[in-house]
Design brief:
Elements: E1 10-14, H1 24-36, E2 41-43, H2 51-61, E3 70-75, H3 77-89, E4 92-96, H4 102-105, E5 111-115, E6 118-125, H5 127-137, E7 155-160, H6 168-174, E8 179-183, H7 193-203
Parallel strand pairs: 1-2, 1-3, 3-4, 4-7, 7-8
Antiparallel strand pairs: 5-6
């Protein structure tokens, strides 16, 4: 649990599909860090549509970060990437309504999409991106807790029971070995995230 782990010094926030660093949760997290933990090294990158390129960027951004005191927060597809990074680097992760099977979930989204926070901006989700997701999924085995093998206590899963996009039962089952924070009635966007932030940051030692 968080009380036995050192306070984090570096924090990465990963947005979801069609989202951006301008997302509500990214902005609320940034505001919390500025107000309560200004010394934290913070990154919230705009992730490319290609999962392979996104994974490369995530590893690049955190290459010099100390695994013992770094953490990643990710929502939806960003939650999947957060689990992947936790497994790669052995760091702590907070996943918010994470995509458990993103290759399946996004298989029907091939094509051009507007960005949520700026509909004038569009991106193309290519067919080969689904296969790139399958490759990354294979690196986060579904029969084990996400994060470093044997260290599920390093992962906090914040799950809304009324997620309208991803199956709650699947998320709960996938992260059962981790610390779970179930939000009754919580939707996919987790509209009550601001109230949960002290708990999320408390898990990371703040």
């Amino acid at each position: 649990m968080s009380h036995s782990l050192p306070r984090i010094t570096h924090l990465l926030y990963l947005h979801g599909f069609r989202s951006s660093p301008q997302s509500t949760k990214a902005q609320l997290t940034r505001q919390w860090v500025r107000a309560h933990a200004p010394e934290l090294i913070w990154q919230s990158p705009a992730l490319p549509p290609s999962p392979r390129e996104a994974a490369h960027l995530i590893l690049q951004l955190t290459a010099d970060w100390p695994p013992a005191t770094m953490a990643v927060i990710g929502s939806s597809l960003g939650g999947f990437y957060a689990s992947w990074l936790s497994r790669q680097r052995g760091c702590r992760a907070v996943v918010i309504n994470p995509s458990v099977q993103p290759a399946r979930s996004l298989g029907g989204y091939i094509g051009t999409h507007p960005m949520w926070h700026d509909p004038t901006q569009h991106f193309y989700f290519a067919p080969e991106f689904v296969e790139e997701l399958r490759v990354l999924q294979a690196q986060v085995p579904p029969d084990e807790a996400p994060g470093p093998v044997g260290h599920p206590e390093q992962v906090l899963a914040v799950l809304g029971t009324h997620d309208e996009l991803l199956p709650f039962d699947e998320m709960q089952s996938r992260y059962a070995a981790c610390t779970l924070r179930i939000v009754p009635g919580g939707d996919h966007a987790l509209s009550g995230y601001e109230a949960l932030l002290p708990e999320v940051m408390g898990f990371l030692g703040w």
